[in-house]
Description:
Layout: H1 5-21, E1 24-29, H2 35-47, E2 51-54, H3 57-64, E3 81-85, H4 89-102, E4 107-113, E5 116-118, H5 120-127, H6 132-178
Antiparallel strand pairs: 1-3, 1-4, 2-3, 4-5
Helix pairs in contact: 1-3, 2-4, 4-5
Amino acid sequence: MAVTRAEKEAELQDLTVAFKAASTAIVVDYKGLNVPAVTELRNQLRGAKAKYKVVKNTLAIRASKGTAFESLEKQFEGTTAVAYTENDAVALAKALTTFMKGAPTLKIKAAVVQGEAIQPAAVTDLASLPGRPELYAKLLFLLQAPMQQLVSVLNAAPRDLMSVLVQYETKKSEGAGAA
């Protein structure tokens, strides 16, 4: 069944909107993956709040015009799919590299992260970075540390005073018991 011009236009519009909204895209060569493997990849990427789309190269080139992904034009050759996200580039890179360990036929062609083109090898480096939740936790710890230290210092004076009073009472009771 042939794809009509209206369907192609609708697909082009959808892809253009997706590219404009996304901050990160990774172009992959999915040659050699079977349907269950692609389904598993989609599920893993969905967990990372990312999307995966097999694209027609000519439509992808047209959709990338005027977006941050225009530099990927040369990579739209052969069997091509695009994994993209609006949110966390690290989560996308982690999901892809984790999946690639079990499916070595999947190859990264190129990537654009936050509008900047990076080499395929840099995607694995990106995957080794801590994710957004981990960074938030570290930031929260750094913001709380001075307050916790201040509370500790302020509690030290009454605690030390109580310790001195307890020792004085103990010494006094020992002195009274000996007399």
